[in-house]
Amino acid sequence: MAHDDGEIPARNGHGLVYRGVAYDTGSNHETGQGSISRTVWSNELMRKEIDLIADDLNANSVTIYGTRFDRLEETVAYAVERGLHIWLQPRLMDGKQHEVLDHLAQAARLAESFRVQGADIDLSVGCTHAIQTAGIMPGEFYHNRMGNAFPDANHNFLKPVGPIDHEDVTRKLNDFLGRAVQVARANFKGGLTYSSGEFENVDWTPFDYVGVTYYYYYQPTRADHVRVLDSYRKWNKPILISEYGTFTYDGGEEKGLLGFDIVDRSKEPPTVFDGFVRDEGAQADYHLRMLRLFDELGIYSAAVCEFVHPTHPHSEDPRYDLDAASMTITKCIRDDYFDHGTTYRLEPKESFKAIARYYAAVTEREQRKAA
Questions:
Q1: Cα dihedral angle (218, 222, 224, 225), rounded to 10 degrees?
Q2: Which pLDDT belongs to residue 10?
Q3: Global pTM?
Q4: SS3 for 16?
């Protein structure tokens, strides 16, 4: 499929200052393939992947997230070495609130240790805490709470808990975020944001940037996207697309985040349901359409979701092609598909190539403006 990669001028002249990708260093959610999202990890592997982000994707920023601080620290250090701007985001899935705040404090101290050495680094106090952190939204586990964002949808994996008192959720969320900001400010002197879900009604007053995780719901028209994104302008702060993306099959965009739910996870190995056709071109076209829109609307920063997701490997057999159910812009090909702990290689998808061309075009535009 042919793609028109041409970038367009930003509406206010300041579109996409940071052009990046979300990079998971390993988050502590149960994947069905272990207790952390990245079982296979090494410093050498991480460096190769950060090199791909800097050199081949043409990104100037990377969102580094995860649970383990040894991995976060070594990844931030190498991203700094490669000259990338960093959004650092700690994740502690299903943590109690005091545990999440302690985890955030440690992340803030880590970010500050790099900032004082001259690193271009900002801190996110977390992602969709109504889902990821206990005690804000009903539900014992994060996948129960995630289902609450889609109470009327058909679910294969998620188990919603309802009904939900949304005013109560908003009050608890903003109370928690207020405490999170206090913890972060006490330990970090740089810019602060939060990666909110579209379903979260956040008080952005104490933050430096408005952050939106923009893949939960399908917006069928350009006008719908503009309406949603313009609703954040009332805060008069730079707007970040903390993460955005879609899945690698025909029609995935129309399912929003629920596009991942096309896998029968009751089976071993998990098996893609019949009727879903892999389509890298559709994913690439979606990314280009959204990047042009973000650019035109003067969105300050955008991070593609996501770089790699080893728990969703690619297979030539459509039954086992879990990569089709992932938002990644690379396909992970395991040495042994059925061995969760095996090493793997990456191949760029069509979306990776299209994003790389767009990022390069915006970089050239910014260089021309600066000349």
A1: 70
A2: 46
A3: 0.94
A4: coil
By the 8 A CB rule, do 88 and 64 touch? yes
Count CB neighbours of 134 within 10 A. Answer: 18
Q: Are 194 and 133 in contact (CB under 8 A)?
A: no
Reduce the DSSP state of residue 339 to 3 states and report it: coil
Give me the CATH code for the 18-370 domain, please: 3.20.20.80
CB-CB neighbours of 353 under 10 Å? 17
Integer Cα distance of 259 and 322 in angstroms: 12
ω before 9 within 30° of 0 (cis)?
no
Q: Is the dihedral of CA 65, 209, 217, 277 positive or negative?
A: negative
Which residue type occupies 223? A
Confidence band for 292, pLDDT divided at 50, 70 and 90 = very high
Q: 52-97 pLDDT, tens per residue?
A: 999 999 999 999 999 999 999 999 999 999 999 999 999 999 999 9
Task: Spell out the domain ranges in the chain.
Answer: 18-370
Calculate Rg over the CA atoms of the chain: 19
Nearest to 41 by CA among 60, 78, 68: 68
Q: Which of 164, 42, 37, 39 is nearest to 92 (CA)?
A: 37
Q: Which two tokens stand for residue 170?
A: 């908003």
What are the backbone dihedrals phi and psi of residue 66, each rounded to the nearest 5 degrees, phi first?
Answer: 155, -175
pLDDT confidence of residue 110 = 98
Residue 150 burial (CB count, 10 A): 19
3-state helix, strand, coil in the chain (%, to 5): 40, 15, 45
Tokens of 332: 């992970």
